[in-house]
Amino acid sequence: MSQRRPVLLDRLQAAIPLLTLYFGLAALYAWQASRHPVPTIYTDEIELSQLSRSIAETGEAARRGDPYGLATLVAYFLAPVWWLGSISTSYAAAKLLLVLAMTATLFPAYALARLVVPPWYALAAAAGATIVPAFAYSPILVEEPLAYPLATTALWLIARVLVHFTWMRLGVAVLASATAMLTRTQLSILFAVLMLGLLWLGWQSERVRAWRVTWTRWDWIGAIALLLGIAVGFSALMGHLSESWRETTGFFRDRILEHATWSAGALAIGIGVLPVIAGIAALARPKDEPRDPETRGFVVTSVAALVVFVGYAGIKGAYISTVFSTLVVERNLIYLYPILFASTALALSRGVGRGWAIAVAALLALYVVAGVPLRLDQYPYYEAHGLSIAAFANRELGWPEGRIENALLGACLVSIAFVVALRFLRRGSLAFAAVAGAATVAVLSWTLTTEVYAAEGERIFSERIAQNLPAPYDWVDQATNGESVVVLGQKITDPTGVWLTEFFNTSVTKVWSLDGTAPPPGAILTPDLAAVDGTLTPAPGTEYALTLNGVELQARVVEQRNGAILYDLDGGPLKLASGTTGLYIDGWMGDMAAYTRYDVSSDGIGLAYVKLSRERWCPHDKPGKATVRIGPVGIGEDQQPAIAEVTQTKTGIVHACEAIGFSFAPPPVPWRIEVKIEPTFAPHELDVNRSDTRELGAVFEAGFRPLLGG
Known about the structure:
By secondary structure, this protein is of the alpha+beta class.
């Protein structure tokens, strides 16, 4: 017992630097999270919050009540925070939980580095892996904050399997890889890393080596042919399982290398380039270094991970470019940080022994850094926070893009010089220690600067969005006392306000629209017109309705904020007071628009009016003939409002810089006005300096104007 206490005490004392670093970094990231007022990544954060709230409330994952199936483990991880009551408190707790989880990467990163370097070098490597630009994701409700430490843990456990194979170690590594995969599906490629490592382990085993000695030339040719056949079969299988694999490897192979290069370039830039050059070069064993299982396991794991993750990023980026946008998807490579920093620590502790390895690593670094687009016009650039250091130079130092590119190439050359010095200086000498120390300080300073500026960009973006929200953010919950609410909108071209209203107000259970523009994730619905008095079907079954973008109901108004109107439905159906269709968010119509007035009970004597204006468009004239019709409301075959019988029609010509008006005696029942303009005009076609390519008719305005008291 007396012998165990000193051992335990020694271990606790050894853990003090690691724990101190953990709590210090966690405090930094928690402070950054506290300055991030609202979610910004749509629809990822909204969907994750829906899933985790549903798990907290019912035990099952769902989006707006629709069953989802198996959700990411992050949703289950965050579920308990929604039991805290206040949404603001729950959101703050969720951010803190993700910060603590992501910062915990420090521990498996340290363990991974300890396979090949002494404790203080491992501590520096773990610190590097825990201050990378990817930590700007830590306060964001996405998968990365939990996936990063789990992937690092899996890579460490895979390396341990390759150090000394046992079935127990293999089982633990498989379990860790599966856990990471269930957190983020991309991490299923950890199984590819494990498989490649096991194949290499088997290939180098004494039994297989003895067998290979007996091979003839034809045996080798047959083995190569077999490998090619397996590769073709694997590609065909992946084509059946993965659309991105099938599309990119089948039709866009040229883009794979480009996107892999961009991703690797952003990764290298974010950590100061040196860890990429030194880290890759250090994987080649010096001639005078004896073989040992720890280094072998680490090197095989590192090489397999580099190949698999970079290949995945290339395929993923190429596929996204065909279906969405051309992005620099460094976000898919962040899991390589712990390996690169551990390998760099290996280079700093024992030098770099192979000149050819330095040359290969240097050429790769120069190629990827020179090839990546810097995206200076986008800050923060969520997909590649490693580029934030370039944004810092541009926005804070005022450097143009050309100077930044030259500076990055200069950083490559300086990094190469450091690595060459580590190659030729005597290990243990004062000069070697000075170079290693300077490199460590430079890399950690560069990396932390990139992370801080990336996090600052996310903060600015979050605060900018928050400025457009009514305060308090949970005003709907407060006004309804938590009773159920349906959102009913139209012309929802920017759903940010809808998403954040739903996020901060748990009373919002349904999101509908009159024109099919209600945003996912989760169930959306466009109700039909059930009666000409404006009654919609189906009934939402909620106590309140929150209308957006000019939707008006026949119900008691409870509160209004920023153009949104909260109505008390008392559990009844939705009943429109009026409605306008066919307009863009800026008020312009295309070739057709309509105004329907359902509630005529208090109109009295007056006129229906229409105003069509091109006053915002000067001076290029393309006259448009406007045909305006009015009549009682009917219900069309599509269960949407229509004119039951036209009672009056008027026409007129709409010119640039002018407006025209029409007046009608409306029917004594709910009525509707429909307008058609032909031809329309496209601003860009008439004036190449205008970027608007829409086909426009006029700015549309319609309503009822009482003759007395109006």
